[in-house]
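Hi F.,

I've been meaning to write this up properly since the lab meeting, where we talked about keeping a consistent format for the predictions we share between groups. The idea is simple: the sequence comes first, exactly as it goes in, then the structure tokens exactly as they come out, then a line or two of notes. No screenshots and no reformatting. I'm using this chain as the first example so we have something concrete to point to.
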Amino acid sequence: MPPADLVLVVDHQLPTPDRDSGSLRLHRIIEELLALGRQVLFFPENGRAERPYADRLRAAGVGVITDRAQQTRFLSDEGHRVGLALLCRPGPAVQMLARVRDAAPGCLVAYDTVDVHFRRLERQAALAAAQGSADRYVLRARADSMRAVELLLARECDVTLVVSDEERRLLGELVPDAWIEVLSNIHRPARTTLERGSAPRVLFVGNYLHEPNVDAARWLCTEIMPLVWAEMPGATVDLVGDAAPPAVTDLAGDRVTVHGWVPELEPLYRRARVAVAPLRYGAGVKGKVGEAVEYGVPVVGTPIAFEGMGLAAGTDVLAGETAAELAGQLVRLLRDDELAARLVTTAGAGLAARFDARVARTVLDRLLCSAPAGTPFHQDPAHGADSKFLIPTCRTESVSVR
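Output, unedited:
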């Protein structure tokens, strides 16, 4: 049986790859699906076709339907032609699962965790409990509820996608009969020749809609950097990322610059001597770590920051669990150019082994070959103005999402 021709992708919104790591991962997965000759149709749960992101997808041949009624009509009329449904994150997945099962009973349904959410929430609850936070029981309840949803999805979907071997083992123990595949981030080859800045600048990058990044930025500036400044008073911090709340913007000062979202990260990486990832809770793999390695910048972080990356502490990166340990590693790396060069070289090799596009392509090809056959789509005005696109017939040439 030939592989599926149409892949339906559902997420909470269109991917915004210049704003968050999860979007960049999905953006590159879509690139690989197109390169494998598949047709891709995207349903954003929020019903918005944000520019320029919708325009870029459509220009690459990806169909986008935002209106809920038009999505339903499309599934009713054409659902039998969907070979693979990629349902991303727990909320969109649980909302769409029955609709996809009813409209496309023969398709392969994949639940893409993006990260195992309940693991992140459990760690957040544990940190809150250790700090005596007033919301510790609320966070614990959120984690328990999310665990139930995600285990349900792992049982009910045909295949569950995780981003690390650690999370595959975790879900495999909890749902032994589940088919679980690792489909992780896709990173470009590391730029090991990138010149480091001369000033002692520490760079933190993160989307602040993601709560672990807010906590990390605050911990960095209020507890870690004061220890660094005691030894290196000239060191500075650049906080970069979208949607910074007052808890982050209030950190700005003489030695801390809050940049917000920037269209190009390379100038900041060029000036940085060290990238830092002081994450006290989280799950999945951390795009900020892989991105820093891509740019040829050495990384200091917590064990959680490096989880699932296959990067060894002391060989590829420098790690610490407490504020004092992280501060010590930052000072060490800011002062030692030879150590920085060694870390960049070895981390780049480790990144290529696990996160090259070919690794993801192999997993996607296995999913596509497990899905039923699809048939070419046609433009149908009945699906409304929002779906005025022509889904191309199955093709073999590579198409890039710009």
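Notes:
The CA atoms of residues 207 and 241 lie 5 Å apart.
Residues 373-402 have pLDDT under 50 and may be disordered.

If this format works for you, I'll send the rest the same way.

G.
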